[in-house]
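Quick entry, no commentary yet.
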Amino acid sequence: QLQLVESGGGLVQPGESLRLSCVTSGFSLDRYAIGWIRQAPGTGQEGISCISADGSSTTYADSVKGRFTVSRDKSKKTIYLQINSLQPEDTANYSCAATSGRISHCVLSPGDYGWWGRGTQVTVSS
């Protein structure tokens, strides 16, 4: 079955960087777009980045544009989220998720995604 497993979260200070990983199995990245969605305590889900199934298109929320970069390594079946200049407001649980049929584009709406990992916690604090 489709599986997504995130890693790379942790406790960091403001201004530091992290690289999150999403290891996938049970499906081909050529047929599924992957999104990154975060949720802070007491708030709703926020779609922050995605990459299309063919890898040609990436999308970012305004809140992270310029600081976050999504990429993938098909040979490792892994999607990465590079997060730079972390701020306390970036504290959240970060999940990756998959959606089928988004070949040349992707969307940030969490409701578009049908398969989810459990997430990895990112905490930014001095």
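second:
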Amino acid sequence: QVQLVESGGGLVQAGGSLRLSCAASGRTFSTLTMGWFRQAPGKEREPVAAVNWSGAHTYYAHSVKNRFTISRDNNKNTFYLQMNSLKPEDTAVYYCAFTNRPYVYGIPRPSEYHYWGQGTQVTVSS
């Protein structure tokens, strides 16, 4: 049974940092494209970052570029999102997700991701 468990969320002041982790189990994830998405209250789920299976190719939303870093440790089946210089507008529930589709350049679409975690809350105070 596939299970994705996010951790590392919490309350942080603006300018602070958090590192989200996603522990995956139940199948092989090392060959899958991985993404982080977020959803704020009253808003649609949006892509934050994505990485191909090897880590060689990445996508970042414009709003998080140069502040967030996505990475993966395929040996540990654990996947990360390092978030620096956090802003109040980064407040949302953050989800890790995987897709069976090969990595493609462009904006990741939630509908194309097959496996989802339960989400972890990130709250940034001003």
